[in-house]
Structure formats: structure tokens, C-alpha cells
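Entry 14. Structure prediction run on the chain below.
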Amino acid sequence: MFVQITKEEFSKEVLKKAWYQTNNIIWALVFLYPLIGVVDYICAGDVWVQFVIVRIIIVLLVLGFYTVFKSNKYNYRILLHCVFFLVSCSSAIFCNLVPTDHLQIYCLVYSALILFFNILVFWEPVHSIVQSLAALVLLSVFFNTLNSSSAEDFIDNGGQFFFIVASLSCLIPGARFKVMEREARQQLQIEKSNEQLKLQNQDIVEKNRIIDMQYERMLKMDEQKNSFINIAGHDLKNLIGSIVMSTNMIKEDEDRLTADQREFIGYITESAEKMQYMLNKLMDVKEIESPELKFNLEIFDINVEVRRIFRGLVETAQMKNIALADNILKLPLNVKLDKVFAGQVFQNLLSNAIKFSQTNNNIKVITSLQRQKFVFEIIDEGIAIGQDELDMMFNKLQTLNDASTSKESRLGLGLSIAKLITREMGGELFYRSDDNGNYFRVEFNVIN
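Output returned:
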């Protein structure tokens, strides 16, 4: 995750960490500096009380400076310089007032204070160098004014330790400053990353809430859809049942009917029974919430079924002055399929071919046996429907809009159903629309 940090944000984070370290230095000094009075009691002789009083005064001054700088949000570096100067002044005075045999202890204490300060402080190394130089200057000034011994004695009795520690401890703040700056940057990156993660989490929660709402809406819509299918399905069952009942009543007086009337009644009865069969199948699928149809497989001559569909659509084609060319094999070809649904596939393809074709056109219906497969073909050499529109009709179950008002509305539901049924029964359906016209092809395995 990429996190961008501005200079202002980084400066605030560094200042916060600097004040945290400054607080540690101040309060550690407030509690520890008076405790050095134990050393004064042991080593300072008669003046140990004055030394302790000075230390207490230094602590009170440090607390006063700290309170003023903290409340007014002054620069922490100036506060540390003031504190270090007070400690350096008192320590330099103590080193030059104690007897020579105890000088080494006070130089070590002074060195420890400088080392402690440089270990904890968070500032640029140049400030530590300034403070070390100031400590050396103060020590030299008070040596000249308060100490009667020689410089060699002072150096031999602990002064060398002080000079070494004061010089080397200046190197610590430089490395520490870089480390703490890096820590401050990393801390800021972590905080900003956490903020971004919180925002992203809130966004995810909100999106999940929207998804849950949409899911609930879809469930309600699904319930409404199921209710509509139930109502429509039962109403259609009643209507189809009425048609079947009426045709059966007419058949009772079959002797009074002409041959053509009996043929038409046969078509009506057969169509109504097929509609009833398909509706029952679809209702069964809906009731068990299953995406699969259960076919009633039977062995039959598929050429006979195609010829029956062909004859049923001849008059529909004649109404548009379209000539249907019969190239259906006379040879029996047995298949094991659901006869009703197989017939529906041929019905949908041929009726749509007639529907989409222009008037005064020829459409060929061909069946053949190729590589142990029954092949059903429709060849329309008229104006092409368009490959894109065929793709939509066969795959997306949606209505195609056509700018030409002379052409019929192209609803792709029947073709989509034909493709679905063909695939579910183990067949294959192909189609093509180009400059040569429109072409449809269905293949099913035949039985030896």
C-alpha cells in the first residue's frame, strides 16, 4: 500500500517524538540529580550540604524552565540547552571545589551525566558538540578561578575520563537522530496505513450492506417471479385443458366432419397436447428449483417429425409468398430424443427463418445422414439477418431493435430456447449469416 507523507506531517511526528524524549530526560534528571547528594555526603566533606542545596535549586530551575517551555510550546532544543547549561555549571563547580583525592569520582559523575544526556537526547549532533565545548569551557573557567592545583593533577585525577567521554558521546546523537527520524517516518506510515485500511474497511462494509440490500430485493423479485409463473402456468393449463376438452367433444361427432376438418382438428389436438406436455415440464423445473429439464426419451423416426413440422408451416410461408423447398430424406433415421422438444427445436428454427425472411423468397429444408449423425439444415439465400443479431438472438434472449419498420420485430427467445434444448439433448446447433444469406444447422446422433 503506497502512503504519501507530507513535510508538515513528518515534522509534527518528529516534534512529538522529540518532546517525548525531552520529557524522559527532564523527569529522569529531576529524580536522579538530587540522589547524587549521596556522593556529596561521602566525598564533599563539610560542604556536602551546600552541594545538595545547589542540586535541589538546579532541579527546581529545570522544572520551572520545563513548565514554561511546555505550556508555551517553545522550541525543545532551547529548553535542553538551558537544562544542560545548568547541570554543566553546577557539575563544573563541584569538580573544582572537591579535594583532589575525590576529583576522579566527580569527573566520572559529570561524564555519566553527559553520556546519559547524549544517549537520550533527540536533536541534531551539532547541538551536542556545542554542549560538550561549553562543558569544557566551563570546566576550564572554574578551574582557573576556584582550583589551586595544577592542570596535570586535574587531568591525572579524572579529567582525562571526562575529556574522552565528552568527545566520544557527541557521536551518539548523530546516529540516534537518524534512527529516530526513520522510526518517526515508519510510525507515521503505519498510522496513515491504518487510517486508509479503516476507510477501506468502512467502504467494504458499506458495499456489503448495499449488496445485502440488493440480494434481499432479488429474493423478493424471485418470489414475485415464482408467484407470477405459478399463476400464469396454472391459467395456461386451464386454457389448454379447455382446448383439449373442446377438440375431444368435436371428435365425438367426427362422422359429420369433412376430411379437411378432421385434419385440422388433429393438428389442434396434437399441438394442444404438446403445449400441455411442455408446460408441465417447465412447471416441474420451476417447482423443484432445478436448472435441468428431464426429457422423456423415446426412439422415433426423426425425418417423419421434420416432415410434420414442414407441412404445418407451409401455409405460414405461403402467406408471405415464400416457397419452402422439401429436401427431407425419405429414408427412416431413428434417434433417441424427447420427441416433443426435438420437434420444438425444428419448429422454432423454421418458423423464425420464415418470420425473418423477406417476401418472394425461397427457403430450403434439408435433412441428411453424415458420419452417423442426423443433420437438419435450413438455407435462406435472401437478405442476411446479420451475424451480430443472430448471436444476440441465440445467446442473450433479448429483443433486437431494427431501424427498418418494414421488417418484423426480431425476438430471439425462440432461437435461444432451440439452442438450449439442442445442447441439453446432446446435439449441436450452428448458424451463420453473411452475404450468401442465412444458414441454420442442427445435428443429433442416430441409432444404428
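The first helix runs from residue 7 to 32.
Filed with the rest of this week's runs.
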